[in-house]
Each structure stands twice: as structure tokens, then as C-alpha cells.
């Protein structure tokens, strides 16, 4: 009888562990320096800020930063298979394209890269969110408009959530931008987390 009760308790405990693990949601951020935390420590990034918040408020969500400074859509596409294999995410937030735009890459190529990233993720049952990205106005109004519209069209075509560009308001505050005029400061990271949190929570649920 004791052995039976012991085996029953162990079985129930195992079920609880399995349910707990299966209930966890993994959200991967595939981005560039804006998410990787250029000039900052990893603990200062907006991704780390959300991770700290969610440890208590949403312990079932595990957010992983797979961002690299200088990353392009081509680089993200090349890395994607390994990222998906390693982390097996339930959701993917794509924050790429800024470096493509700053380098004047062909928009058709950028569009193709983004679509392939989304396709690969969706084929594995991963829910995708795409960040809107903008280029500085000095790149010309026509190119800036085409660049912005590209993200809208890709999101619509692939039926994924388009998340507004988190740097749009940050960039207008000198205290929130580093001396290079591009990258957000440590002080800006909680603001970015505030902005993105509701979108990423919805993506992960």
C-alpha cells in the first residue's frame, strides 16, 4: 500500500512538472543593435528590463534576446534556423531592417529576407510580430516612405502583427539617444520596455 501511495505521489508530481514546463512560453527577440543594447551592458537592455518585470508578473513567459549589433535582415535570415533550433520559441519578435536601410540596400531584397524569416518561423508554428522600422529623414522623403510602407505590406501579406517603431518617440529626446544620434541610452531602455510590453505580452499569449 505504501509503495502504491508513493508511486501515485511521484506520478502526480511528475504531471505537475510536465504541465508547468508545457505552460511556459518562449519569446525570442531577433533584432539589431537597438535591441542588443549597443554601448550598454546586457542587464541594461529593454529586453532584460522586461525579463525582470515578467519574473514576477508573468513567470510563464521566458524572453530571450537573440539580437546582434549591426545585424541585417540577411544576417537574421542566415541565423534563424539555429535560433529556432536552440530556443524552440512559441513567438518571435523581428526587429530588423534598420541597418539595411542605413546602408541603402535594395528594398526588394530586404522585403524578401523579411518574408523568408516569417515563413520559416510560421512553418514551425511560431507566432510572429514584426517591428516597424524607419530611417532618418535625411535619407530622402521618397525612400523613407517606401521603406516604411514595405514593413506594412509585409505584415499584411504574411498576416503578422505590425508593432509600431519604438524609437520614433525616443529619438526626439536628446536624453534618450547616445552621442551617435542613433542608439538609445540606458535611461531610454525602461521607456522602450513600457512601450513594447503590451504588444509583446499579446504576442506571447
UniProtKB/TrEMBL annotation:
<dbReference type="InterPro" id="IPR036514">
    <property type="entry name" value="SGNH_hydro_sf"/>
</dbReference>
<dbReference type="InterPro" id="IPR013830">
    <property type="entry name" value="SGNH_hydro"/>
</dbReference>
<dbReference type="InterPro" id="IPR008265">
    <property type="entry name" value="Lipase_GDSL_AS"/>
</dbReference>
<dbReference type="GO" id="GO:0004622">
    <property type="term" value="F:phosphatidylcholine lysophospholipase activity"/>
</dbReference>
<protein>
    <submittedName>
        <fullName>Acyl-CoA thioesterase I</fullName>
    </submittedName>
</protein>
<feature type="signal peptide">
    <location>
        <begin position="1"/>
        <end position="23"/>
    </location>
</feature>
<dbReference type="InterPro" id="IPR051532">
    <property type="entry name" value="Ester_Hydrolysis_Enzymes"/>
</dbReference>
<dbReference type="Pfam" id="PF13472">
    <property type="entry name" value="Lipase_GDSL_2"/>
</dbReference>
<feature type="domain" description="SGNH hydrolase-type esterase">
    <location>
        <begin position="29"/>
        <end position="188"/>
    </location>
</feature>
<dbReference type="GO" id="GO:0006629">
    <property type="term" value="P:lipid metabolic process"/>
</dbReference>
<keyword id="KW-0732">Signal</keyword>
Amino acid at each position: 500500500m505504501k509503495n502504491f501511495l508513493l508511486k501515485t505521489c511521484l506520478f502526480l508530481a511528475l504531471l505537475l512538472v510536465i504541465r508547468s514546463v508545457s505552460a511556459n512560453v518562449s519569446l525570442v527577440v531577433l533584432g539589431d543593435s537597438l535591441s542588443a543594447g549597443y554601448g550598454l551592458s546586457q542587464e541594461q537592455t529593454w529586453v532584460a528590463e522586461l525579463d525582470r518585470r515578467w519574473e514576477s508578473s508573468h513567470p510563464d513567459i521566458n524572453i530571450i534576446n537573440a539580437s546582434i549589433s549591426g545585424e541585417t535582415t540577411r544576417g537574421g535570415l542566415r541565423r534563424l534556423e539555429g535560433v529556432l533550433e536552440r530556443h524552440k520559441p512559441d513567438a518571435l519578435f523581428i526587429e530588423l531592417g534598420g541597418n539595411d536601410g542605413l546602408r541603402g540596400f535594395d528594398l526588394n531584397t530586404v522585403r524578401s529576407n523579411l518574408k523568408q524569416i516569417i515563413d520559416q518561423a510560421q512553418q514551425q508554428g511560431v507566432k510572429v510580430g514584426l517591428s516597424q522600422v524607419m530611417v532618418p529623414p535625411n535619407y530622402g522623403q521618397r525612400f523613407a516612405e517606401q521603406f516604411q510602407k514595405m514593413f506594412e505590406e509585409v505584415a499584411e501579406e504574411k498576416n503578422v502583427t505590425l508593432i509600431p517603431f519604438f524609437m520614433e518617440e525616443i529619438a526626439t529626446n536628446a536624453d534618450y539617444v547616445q552621442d551617435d544620434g542613433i542608439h538609445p541610452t540606458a535611461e531610454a531602455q525602461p521607456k522602450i520596455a513600457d512601450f513594447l510590453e503590451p504588444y509583446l505580452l499579446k504576442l506571447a499569449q
